[in-house]
Amino acid sequence: MTSLLEMRGVTVRFGGVVALSGVDLDVDLGSITSIIGPNGAGKTTLLGVASGMVQATAGTVAFAGRDVSAAPAHARGAAGMVRTFQNLEVFSNMTVLENVMTGCHRHVDYGVVDCLVRTGRFRREERRCRAHALRRLDFVGLADKAGSPASDLPYGLQRRMEIARAIAADPALLLLDEPAAGLNTRETQALGELITAIRESQGVTIVLVEHDMDLVMRISDAVMVLKEGRNLAMGPPEAVQKDPEVIKAYLGEDED
Amino acid sequence: MDLGSLLQYLITGVTVGATYGLTGLGFTIIFNTTGIINFAQGEFVMLGGMLGVAAYAAGVPLPLAVLLAVAAATLAGALMERTFIRPVASASPVNLIIITIGASILIRGVAMLAFGKDTFALPHFSGMEPIRFLGAAMLPQSLWVLGVTLLLLLALKSFFSSTMWGRGMLACSYDPKAAALMGINVSRMAMASFMISAAVGAAGGVILAPITLTAYDVGILLGLKGFAACILGGLGNPFGAAAGGIILGVLESFGAGLLSSAYKDAITFVILLLLLFVRPTGLFGKGSGERV
Amino acid sequence: MSPSRRNLLGLGAWTLLMALAPFLLTNDYYVSTLIIGFFNAIIVVGLNLLIGYAGQISLGHGAFYGLGAYVSGILAATYGLPVEAAGLIAIVLTGLIAWGIGIPTLKLSGHYLAMATLGFGVIVSIVFNEAVAFTGGPSGLTGIPRLALFGTTVESDLSYYYVTGAALTLVMALSLNLIQSRLGRALRALHTSERAAEAVGVDIARYKLFVFVLSAVFAALAGVLYAHYLGFAAPSSFGFKFSVTLLVMVVLGGMASVWGAVAGALFLTALPEFLRAFEDIETLVFGGILILGMMFLPSGLAGGASRIAKAVAVRLRRD
């Protein structure tokens, strides 16, 4: 099995609007796959279906060979499919470190009684979780901000914190929803390096929904193009870049 | 179980239900314009009855007392919006809920200080001679209740569909930013919605007061039932609220008559809970309300 | 200093203060006021977890307080069960009821949730009033035996004070531990962003239910202690008015602080004693606190206290 994420025939209808129609997606294990397309193509909706936060009208989602189409969002998160959000979802009532420690949720191993009574197991796991979170913060370059309230961080750093939180979960699959939104050129460059580093050092498979073409073409192994809720093209970045259909979709049909 | 009793339950139910409907209407108007659920809505109903009693006791002729009560409650609505809601319009839903609860407590407290804890009665508008038919007796006041309710419903319908103000308020509920960009004064609409809701609620309170008596604390239960009427009819749907209120009143009346009068209030709330659990969009719902 | 170290110090200071208080007070009457204050504090700490940390709302928590009081009272007074057993059954039963009502209720949010909890509270209140055969109706249930632990009756006010104080300290410790854990982080996360919490694997429905049931269990515990102290339980003590009072205590104390919750509860229990002559304006004061609190001081006494503490710390560091 080389497809970590396999989506087949995904259709999503919101009232009268068809957001997605019969979309297929294969994400290879260990790859960085980007999903691009003009505005309104349904990219974020597709990510929503994958993560279980959007109800698909039809179609299936398989993760690591198992059909998860009926699984609720939190179950998919617990299974190792973690997503970030286009509009930052920072836990503003916690510090940066606590935000990232929350990311550890699925692999911190103790029960309610352990929490309430502070057993040895609780202390051990909390220590481990804390160290783990600090390592992730260090990885994204935010170790010195660990104790700050999360809402005090500037936008760009909050984005990085969100990524640290996501990788603290030790995911098998990371779904990034427009991670470069609101970042300048320099920050986007750094983001690209970070994403590549995550794949290299932790073997995480990454799916990226993005508008920034430089970023997409630079770091992706595969690119999938959506247009008006349908598959338009799929392949390596160079091939997709040259695909006439793709060019037409982005630039409009002013030749004809 | 004769026709007469059943008819009697129906009449009582529809009469009381009309007030629930008017209270529910008040909730709907504010919710439609501002997205806020005003937990103090029931207090406007209470103010209608109590202020009517106070005015009449001060020697004001009954028709004038009724109008004064509604006018004073309208003012209270404006005051409430200005003082408590306007400054915190951007607060989180939980905070807003707590603020409107605080406002309802405040209004109740003032009423208690001003009027004491007794129950009061307002004289019936056109005498107490019951109209008998088919084995049931109907108080003339019931006709007043139904008549005024119908009138208010029709007036509001034409207000919202045909007048600039009414349409402006509806625009605010769909998208306050877009409405503002179109030149609609959103905060004035909000104040207007509170005033209209207070007027409608107070009208309901004052016309029912002769039948059910009134006291400083009738607002709590009435407010809850008004909200239940909203939910039953679908939050955001004015006619749903009115219909929901009447259905609720009838169910409550039949429940009290056929099952147990002691638990009649509990019946209403069990219905409310079941509705919330099973079909929060109500019978005629728009499907709006809490976006998941 | 780590949060858990701070908590431990705080609990230590609290325990000391609590233990010494009866000897520092001039009047025995104040001890009984504190006992009632402790009952309220036990409920409010739990409610604070639900509202302040997890961001939910309950306008019907008086019902769980009443269920604890009535079930324990009825089992002990009418059916002659030993108080320890009656109390335990009451707490477990209330927890089960909270679990049952919580499952459908917590699927709601915002004003739907508020109304559902309010409706539930009113229904329970009506049952207390109308099930006269069991509850004694509006005039209440009398003849409830005094609390007994391991066979010994907790006779004097002073010993009751210490038993209740110990219960409160336990509740506080459990809550503080809960907050500084994976569970606490999950709760705080779902307060600000349910989606992001789900994304990292938090089962938000389960956690909401857990904190709801926990807060109901705390309330029931307080109810048991209440019933076997006063020997008496009446429906009017557990209705909507009391549920709102609890809300005021949570708001006043600061929405996300165990210490604030205790402070809010104790302060608002003592306040009516001082306002004895002004009983009528009690309602106005409560309404005012709710409104002003939400408008100007959303983090309550605790927030104000922590801001003062921070300002003092900054000042000290500068010198």
Description:
The complex is a heterotrimer of chains A (256), B (292) and C (319). Chain A is built from ten helices and ten strands. Chain A is an alpha/beta fold and 256 residues long. In chain A, strands 6-7-8-3-9-10 form a six-stranded mixed beta sheet, sandwiched between helices. The longest helix of chain A has 21 residues, at 120-140. Chain B has one domain (3-218). Chain B has eleven helices and two strands. Chain B has helices spanning 3-34, 41-57, 62-85, 93-115, 140-162, 164-174, 176-181, 186-212, 218-233, 238-259, 264-278; strands spanning 131-133, 136-138. In chain B, a hairpin with a 2-residue loop joins β1 and β2. The radius of gyration of chain B is 19 Å and the shape is globular. Chain C is globular, with a radius of gyration of 19 Å. In chain C, the strands form two sheets. Chain C has a two-stranded antiparallel sheet. Chain C has a two-stranded antiparallel ribbon with strand order 2-3. Chain B binds chain C through residues 37, 39, 84, 87-88, 91, 93-95, 97-99, 101-110, 112-113, 220-221, 224, 227-228, 231, 262-263, 265-266, 269-270, 272-273, 276-277, 280, 289-290, and chain C through 51, 55, 57, 59, 104-105, 107-112, 114-116, 118-120, 122-123, 126-127, 130, 240, 244, 247, 251, 280-281, 283-284, 286-291, 293-295, 298.
Quick summary of this structure?
The complex is a heterotrimer of chains A (256), B (292) and C (319). Chain A has helices spanning 43-51, 73-78, 96-103, 112-117, 120-140, 155-168, 185-202, 213-219, 237-242, 244-251; strands at residues 3-14, 17-28, 32-36, 58-63, 66-67, 81-83, 173-177, 205-209, 222-227, 230-235. By secondary structure, chain A is of the alpha/beta class.
